[in-house]
Amino acid sequence: MDSTTHAQTKPKSSPGWMITIAAAAAFLATFNETFLNVAFAPIMNDFGVDINTVQWLTTGYLLVAAVFVPVANVLYRRFPTKSLFITVTAIMVVGSIIGALAPNFATLLIGRLLHAIGTGLLTPIGMNITLAVSPREKLGMNMGIMAAMTTLGPSLAIVLSGAMLTIAPWRTLMWVFAVLVVLVLIAGAIILYTVVELGRPVLDVASFLLIAVALIGILYGVSAAFGGNILVSGGAIIVGLLFLWAFIRRQNRIENPLIDLRPFKSAAFNRGVAMTMLGLLFVFAMNVIIPLFLQAARGTAPLAASLTLAPGILLTVVLGPIAGRWFDRFGGRVSIPLGFIAMAVFVGPVGLAAGQTSLVIFGALYVPAVLATAFVIGPSQTFALSSLDQESSPHGVTVVSTSFQIAGGVGTSLAAGIYGMVSQAQMTSGNNEVDSLITGFRAAVALVIVTSLIGVYLAIRAYSARKPQAAQPEAPQVESTGTVAGLMKTDVYSIKSESTVLEALYKFTSLGISGAPIVDQDNRLVGFISDGDILRYLSAAHPSSANIYSFAIGADKDLEQAMQELGQLNVMRLATKDVISLPHTATVADAVAALSDANLKKAPATNDQDHMVGIVSRSAINRLAISSYLEAKHEEKLTV
């Protein structure tokens, strides 16, 4: 791969096709996580290994995938997108061939770990591609598509693998996966182009080793927690945490960190990542525990047990982009908490139905529970990443992608561990096997109910921290020296939420402003829109309308078409909905920090009643700094 390219390659395909490739890659990467799980029994028979050994095909996979996710950020910014994509997918093809031809378990495990390297690199690369090419007004929808694919992958893998194993040996799974990866590789070679300005970021080997040991220690400790040896589990977790602490300290000290930790300075990002992980934990836990329970307690065939999940899986894929559009239009203030509530409420009847005999009823009850995750995973992920600036976004993607693997490992280990531990305890106390397994399953269901309720709390906290502020144009200005009130602009123009983008653009040009807050019918602050938001939309939807040179070649018709479209587009479609505001009593230093951290040029100022009383801007702060400097110099001259 050529590492000397520093400029973006001229686009040769539309963003839609780029996102399609990214979504296909995300699907294959997560499909890869579980597609071999159904084949554990025949693999054990062929190679003469026990369940503790064969489990390393999953445990080792998740560990290696988690370790390589941070490396993706360095490679993404160093090598051309197409070359990197081809190389990573080629590694997965090689892993499939090795696994398909494996003469023993050790060789199969090597092929599986090559799969894991591909997954660890491919998921964040696909997410970065989506972030880079998505128009702002479609970011939520496109991230919803990515979330749907990452949800569909591990879930559908169980169903398709079960179906293939009824007619073919387990090695067929490796060949089929190899063919799918080759198809995506060819499509990427044709369609992809470089989507980021390339440089020469350095891979810090010491940081890589530290995070590798940290993640392996933590994930192994969690997976071993229910194996009976608490000392080993606790020791592994402690070692993992110590290495994680050392990793964090090193990132803050070296010039080229493996992961830029600045995203963690954003409370919104941290809460968004936590909500995403809780949603993923639900999906991974239930997708493992339901087939396991049905086969053990009901004697259901693997394929039938897997098909019980199919309706919810397919409907979730359809609902993912819809939930993303909903987030684009209304934000996640209502939908994310309601999604977590629906997960908790509807999964309860699934646990109660464990003692029933009808698979149809059991599967139907699970559908609304898993559908609710569409309103949690994608929107929470978008909530987290949209809080970052362009420079921090690739590092944020690295964190989110790592969280996928961690959530998968933790969710699977916790659910299976609780299920096995409670079931065994029930049988030891004298209960029959079926009743014991039902109790164990209900204990696992209780786990995801608790995690969903934690998600409700986090979602409410996430949005209460960025609560919309009520606007009151006549609010009095409070005199204060050294605070926001002393430098804010009080004659603030606003735009009604029912206005069109064209009306907002007209107000910008007529008043000579570059942006304005948006208020609803009750004068509550519901968003902010700038000319930059509008220009980004025009650049994506009507490129020539945003380029003044295009008029020399008669492209004025495109401008007319673009203006007609803006005249029908609601202003909230392009607006930033979660507006960061400052109290009028905040110090100038607080204002500088807030505007700098959020990379903003201006922010609304509010009084004690949460009414908007003005706008504080960088330019006002700069004028204050200059005037203070000149005044101090003048006083020095007078005292000389």
Question: Could you please describe the fold and organization of this structure?
Answer:
The chain is mainly alpha-helical and about 650 residues long. It has four domains: about 200 residues, Growth Hormone, Chain: A (Up-down Bundle); about 50 residues; about 210 residues, Up-down Bundle (Growth Hormone, Chain: A); about 170 residues, CBS-domain, CATH 3.10.580.10. It contains 23 helices and seven strands. Helix 19 links the parallel strand 2 and strand 3. The longest helix has about 35 residues.
Concise account of the structure shown:
The chain is mainly alpha-helical. It is built from 23 helices and seven strands. It has four domains: 1-201, Growth Hormone, Chain: A (Up-down Bundle), CATH 1.20.1250.20; 204-254; 259-466, Up-down Bundle (Growth Hormone, Chain: A); 470-639, CBS-domain (Roll).
